[in-house]
Amino acid sequence: MGQIQLKQVTKSFGDVQVIPPLDLIIQDGEFTVFVGPSGCGKSTLLRLIAGLEDITTGHIEIDGQDATDVVPAKRGLAMVFQSYALYPHMSVRKNIAFPLRMAKLNQVEITKRVERAASVLNLTDYLDRRPGQLSGGQRQRVAIGRAIVRDPAAFLFDEPLSNLDAALRVGMRLEISELHKRLETTMVYVTHDQVEAMTMADKIVVLQAGVIEQVGTPLELYHTPRNTFVAGFIGSPKMNLMTGGEAAKHNAHTIGVRPEHIDVVESGGQWQGTVGVAEHLGSDTFFHIHNTGLAETLTVRAIGDVNLKHGDTIHLAPRVDEIHRFDADGLRIA
Amino acid sequence: MATKASRSAARFMMAPAVVLLLGWMLVPLIMTLWFSFTKYLPLRGDSIDRGLDWVGFANYSRFLSSSSFWPSVQTTLVMVGGVLLITLVLGILLAILLDQPMWGQGVVRILVIAPFFVMPTVSALVWKNMLMDPVNGIFAHLWRFFGAEPVAWLQDASLSSIIMIVSWQWLPFATLILLTAIQSLDSEQLEAAEMDGAPVLKRFWFIVLPHLARAITIVVLIQTIFLLSIFAEIFVTTGGAFGTRTLTYLIFQRVIDSQNIGLGSAGGVYAIILANIVAIFLMRIVGKNLDA
Amino acid sequence: MSRTVTKQRKMITTAAAWTIGLIIFFPIYWTILTSFKTEAQAINDPPLFFAFDWTLENYALVQERSDYMKFLWNSVIIAGGSTILGILVAIPAAWSMAFVPSKRTKDVLLWMLSTKMLPAVGVLYPISLIFVQFDLLDTRGGLVVVLMLINLPIIVWMLYTYFKEIPGEILEAARMDGATLKEEILYVLTPMAIPGIASTILLNFILAWNEAFWTLNLTAANAAPLTAFIASYSSPEGLFFAKLSAASTMAITPILILGWFSQKQLVRGLTFGAVK
């Protein structure tokens, strides 16, 4: 079990309200990702759920029970920190056993559970090492091990992959996803990286300045962003947003087209411009295009290797049915 | 990381230290204040049980008008200032020297720290007798060897001699703090300055010295705290004679030697005021530098 | 990137540093050396550096005059007791300041330090009266308490600076793992801060060992530590350099040895945790 519900939760630091009244339900077994730019309040929100910060007003319920005034230790949640927060003076075994020791379990049960967690996470060979002797990825797994041994109601992850290098990050992303499939426990995951959000989440909560901009599945957010902020934040490279004449043609204040929804054509095409930078990745080519008269820079993704260089003229054909329209307040026009 | 629970736990856990120090500060302070307004001469039969005569500010004006008051304040300030100046200047030079690559750095460091371990009574006695004795001290031998007349250090240059002894005790402390600070200086900063064409002295002045500001603050703060209450060094060398009577020592004489508690307490209040002036001044600087 | 240093330059700095080091150390060296001479050799002109008859008689004479072991034991109890007691009071306080800082934390810290600036002599008489009242004069217990109070601000400050280096997330992790406050401090914070705590203990032990105002003024025969042991040599008494040296050597040797064995922690402690 692990349903978490926030009811009219607010948080202020002194006179500054960082989270205006907010409602959210995280269903049991769901992988929920809080995503947003830095300073959007996503970590604060996670720490409110953990109980590491008091909420200013409102209620938090875990499995229907009011947990607003329950201390972190008693909420039945486990947390994986950005810095892993391993206990440097304890071996891996003792690190993983620590929550069980605090719960006053007997030694036999502790050993059994630690070994089970270690084998799930491929840590069996490292049980007697200190955290300082482990690589970043292994430390990350120890932190996860420490979280899973006690069968928490939910896991809280606070940007757990941001200290890993790019290659390792992809691997750990998969491991965490697989762990979720296997344990089917509620996970709340905070990240500023929309790729992590898109690849891992059942449900994404996009936050800006403490306000929830949109809640939905990754593909809902991709296909029907509720406003220009979500449109620009989800998807990589970023959606091209344009105002002015071109938007007016579509009866909108702003229109947006994703780079992958603009085709490069030999000639003709609705738009044209000059290639600024061409990034050749082999599988794709990204063009940053100037002088289109639409926006300062237009980003376009072409499949495969397209042979256009800096300064070349490029012809573009946007897919009309993939154009998103927004009104003057930045809200989506259906 | 602050919840209501952790904040109240914090207050609870601060309590013992705060209460103890508050008691340690207030109880004797209030008693001293009380005594300072009374005639309190235990040798003439005054005692708390029989009640003390209230004399108003008589003790204060007497202490202030005593011919030894201002000289003692001056002696205190000269002593503290002198030791600070010597330990800081020599400490910076020594720290820079010890930062250079050399053989046996560890041993040299042990040699340099050693004086800090020597208890003040011992170092004062050793300096007074073995080194500064005008007849048999090492300095006397040395002076005679070069054909000079030995100096009666603790009589003719008493204040400087004590400053010398105390500086010897505190130099290790200053050196170590400054050395640690120098070692933490990012060498790329110096290299950048070198690339910018700054010569050695300019690099020291514009890069090293500002980097040491915090360490220097710490040295000044800690040393001042300890130096203001210098006692043993004077007690065993000159006993306050030959112009080495600091305010601390003057009060000690009033209270212990002449058993005039009222007068001594008034002096104590003056000393507390002086210490507070220095403290406020210091805390201002330190408070600013502590977070930097 | 360290640059290659010419051998010549390294030799010059080595020579300079050793010379200065030896000059600074000389008074201690000279004291230890003199303690093994006879009184006549001790004042010989020119001073004797090697060629003399080593003797232990000074140590015997000093021991005869006052029982060294008793003073030593008092020093150990007073310095050790006050330090341990101080640490026990200071750890919770430092935890609060380092991990639950408020706007007043810095003020409290500076206030604590400022109590150290109150001139001891200003409150000597009240304290002795209180000591008489509670029968604490010339007891080790009384001195343990006084020296603990004197060093408490320094202990709190040092622990505070060491604790601040420990990431708060680790303590939060312990809290999430179900640790109570006591368990968090006992099993997580304290073991992680061991090096800092060791430095704090060492430095304050030395400060308490060498403290010479309260120990001289509040003790007589029973509880007198080594500071008093040596103070009895403060008035000149004919030929006494060798005896003085022997007594001095006996008073400082325990701390010198302790210092040499724990040099690393001490150097760290000597900076009061304030400079990195």
Task: Provide a descriptive summary of the structure in words.
The complex is a heterotrimer of chains A (334), B (292) and C (276). Chain A has a 6-stranded mixed beta sheet, sandwiched between helices. A 5-stranded antiparallel beta sheet of chain A has the order 13-17-14-15-16, with no helix packed on it. Chain A contains 9 helices and 18 strands. Chain A starts with a strand and ends in an 8-residue tail after the last strand. Chain A is of the alpha+beta class and 334 residues long. The mean pLDDT of chain A is 90. In chain A, β14 (271-280) and β15 (284-290) form a beta hairpin. In chain A, α2 (92-102) packs across α3 (107-120) and α2 runs parallel beside α4. Chain B has a single domain, classed as MetI-like (MetI-like fold). A two-stranded antiparallel ribbon of chain B has the order 1-2. The two termini of chain B are 22 Å apart. In chain C, α3 packs across α13 (241-261) and α10 (194-210) packs across α14 (263-270). The two termini of chain C are 20 Å apart. Chain C folds into 2 domains: 7-60, no CATH class; 66-232, Orthogonal Bundle (MetI-like fold). Chain C has helices at 7-34, 39-42, 57-65, 68-99, 105-115, 124-133, 140-164, 168-176, 181-192, 194-210, 214-217, 226-231, 241-261, 263-270. Chain C is mostly helical and 276 residues long. Chain C has 14 helices and no strands. Helices cover 71% and strands 0% of the residues of chain C. The interface between A and B is small, with 5 and 5 residues.
Q: CATH H-level name of chain B... which superfamily?
A: MetI-like
CATH architecture of the largest domain in chain A: 3-Layer(aba) Sandwich
Q: How can the largest sheet of chain A be summarized? A: 6 strands, mixed
Q: Which CATH first-tier class of chain B would you pick? A: Mainly Alpha
